[in-house]
């Protein structure tokens, strides 16, 4: 049996067609991999109302209104480092609506805001930019044999302790390296 028992209109009409053709509810349950209560309720609804439409208002009502959802999105964008718990407190202070941190996360996901680790970027000075640009201009005409002698490495951060960068920010996909979305890092070497 499937866990998801909400049926689309096409499936509902197929079930009703099978019922009217004289097929038993048990046969329909086996054929469509549904529980007996789903088929029985659909059969009763069709006999009583002649319709297969879901009644309006079925399901749990939303804890927040559209205005509160927009408010949550705005305060999350203004304070990108705020946790879902802090945002739920801010929502309560601003509107008087109490919601859980899970609800806050769901509302932010609906507006394409996700909690992600900030990308660690080295802040570049104007001197660093000029040096990098000069290096690129010097090496732009290199061929594959010359590049084959260059070793490209990726500096990784290793730690025996727990992660000390456990801070998340709310951001949209594809905005990881935008300056407000990234954490600054200082390195102890030349050639930045």
TrEMBL record:
Q: Which SUPFAM superfamilies match?
A: Homeodomain-like (SSF46689)
* A GO-annotated cellular component: nucleus
Q: Where in the cell is it found?
A: Nucleus
Q: Where is the Transposase Tc1-like domain?
A: 69-141
Question: Out of the domains of life, which is the source?
Answer: Eukaryota
Q: What are this entry's molecular-function GO terms?
A: DNA binding
This protein's major location comes to nucleus
Any Pfam family from its record, for instance, is HTH_Tnp_Tc3_2
The family database entries (InterPro entries) matched by this protein are listed as:
Homeodomain-like_sf (IPR009057), RNaseH_sf (IPR036397), Transposase_Tc1-like (IPR002492), WH-like_DNA-bd_sf (IPR036388)
> What is the recorded name of this protein?
Transposase Tc1-like domain-containing protein
């Amino acid at each position: 049996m499937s866990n998801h028992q909400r049926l689309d209109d096409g499936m509902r009409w197929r079930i009703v067609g099978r019922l009217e053709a004289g097929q038993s509810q048990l046969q329909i349950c086996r054929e469509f991999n549904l529980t007996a209560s789903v088929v029985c309720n659909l059969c009763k609804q069709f006999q009583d109302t002649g319709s297969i439409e879901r009644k309006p208002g079925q399901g749990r009502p939303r804890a927040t209104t559209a205005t509160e959802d927009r408010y949550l999105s705005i305060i999350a964008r203004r304070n990108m480092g705020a946790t879902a718990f802090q945002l739920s407190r801010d929502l309560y202070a601003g509107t008087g609506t109490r919601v859980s941190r899970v609800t806050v996360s769901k509302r932010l996901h609906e507006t394409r805001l996700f909690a992600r680790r900030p990308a660690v970027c080295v802040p570049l000075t104007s001197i660093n930019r000029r040096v990098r640009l000069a290096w690129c201009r010097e090496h732009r005409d290199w061929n594959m044999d010359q590049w084959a002698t260059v070793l490209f490495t990726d500096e990784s951060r290793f730690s025996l302790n727990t992660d000390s960068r456990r801070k998340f920010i709310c951001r949209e996909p594809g905005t990881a390296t935008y300056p407000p979305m990234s954490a600054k890092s200082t390195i102890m070497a030349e050639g930045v």
